[in-house]
Amino acid sequence: MSDPTSRPERTSPNYDLYQREIFKDGSYGTLPSFSTDPDQLEAVAASKLSERGRLYALSNAGLSLTARTNRAAFAAYQIIPRMLRPTLERDISTTLFGHHIPAPIGFAPVGVNEIYNPEGELAVASVAGELGLPYCLSTASSRSVERVAEANDAGAKAAGRAEGGPRFFQLYLPHNWELAESLLKRAWDNGFDVCIMTLDTDHLAWRHGDVAQANYTFYYGQGNEMGWTDPVFHKYLEEKGIDPKKDPKTAGRAWIDTVWHGKAHSWDDLPRVIKLWKDISGGKPFVLKGIQCVEDALLANRNGCDGIIVSNHAGRQVDGAVASLEMLPEIVDAVGGDMTVMFDSGVRTGADVFKALALGAKAVFIGRLWIYGLAIQGAPGVRHVTKSLLADFDSLMDLAGYRSLGEVSRAALKIRDIARL
């Protein structure tokens, strides 16, 4: 929390000044609407959500062992602060797939945002555009790709930016190649220039709370807007005599059965979908999300992927799986020289972002944090959570003595025995 009048100009935003702004407002009696302490944030969001929304936001696979292991892995790594290293001119900006971004943090793809807030994806895309950070749109979106792109541009315009931040499209590969082509073309036509194919969700894991309440949102007619606004899928519904306005539940089942629902793809499908995206986009990047294994990272590299996201779906898919952070160094060592390695799963604080970057991630994506902000207060909630994380990370870089992302390496960390945590 430095005095903005006594510091040199920076090449990345002074995110840490958000703390100063909050303290100043507080001295005049205006406090933030809610705390960004992760535990308190989750509790407040849970109190605001409907039962179905709460379950969808908070449920993990099985006994939540993977979710807890993710957090234990972060606790196992400890930051080694450096002293007497002037950091006022620090730079936390970076480039990602040719896009200059002000911080190495992006919005992970999360489906069915309207279950958290009526604004749905529009609120999140707007804030991402305002901040110039990467935004990933899920195939399971509750708003069309066209409307989300408009919201992203509107957020940028409101902030005085010429255009929104980078837009990535997260693909659940349909079992209908004509539909896959249509979805990818719509994404490309609306400014989404990186395709991220998620691998770990051909169907939902056994999540006790969701199962007990039959909480499968697509079957209730939510999270299907991407399909219902697609001309290829609309034609399919017409041929089946299904009207999504009159019978959204049947239409929802048709959509999700077409996209995944237990029908897994294989590595043999990968060259075809990569070529499809490359032909549509003129060669733009193709990324795989859900990589946890060095061998799979090597296969992604051999098959021509431009990047991977090391992720275990935040513990929502395989209970008892290895922590994503624990696997990150091995995967970076195997393929980091050939492709862009990114990270998500279990990120809660600026220190978490730092640790993932130190272990080799080029960028870090957050999901549940902004979900909670969205649930509590819509777009202002997403903004507060994200600006707080940016300020937390920026301040940590200052206090720990690191002047740029280039200085953040494994030498900045000491590891404890994760088994003792």
From TrEMBL:
Flavoprotein recorded as keyword: yes
Any idea which residues are catalytic in this one? H313
* Location of the FMN hydroxy acid dehydrogenase domain: 30-418
Q: Provide the residue positions that the database annotates as binding FMN.
A: 109-111, 138, 170, 198, 289, 311, 344-348, 367-368
Q: Which cofactor does it need?
A: FMN
Keywords in alphabetical order: Flavoprotein, FMN, Oxidoreductase
Q: Which Pfam families match?
A: FMN_dh (PF01070)
Q: Where does glyoxylate bind?
A: Y56, Y172, R207, H313, R316
Q: Name one GO molecular function term.
A: oxidoreductase activity
Q: Which InterPro entries match?
A: Aldolase_TIM (IPR013785), Alpha-hydoxy_acid_DH_FMN (IPR012133), FMN-dep_DH (IPR000262), FMN_HAD (IPR037396)
Q: Which domain of life is it from?
A: Eukaryota
**Which family is this protein grouped under?**
Belongs to the FMN-dependent alpha-hydroxy acid dehydrogenase family.
What is the name attached to this protein's record?
A: FMN-dependent alpha-hydroxy acid dehydrogenase
Source species, please?
A: Dacryopinax primogenitus (strain DJM 731)
Q: What is the lineage of its organism?
A: Eukaryota, Fungi, Dikarya, Basidiomycota, Agaricomycotina
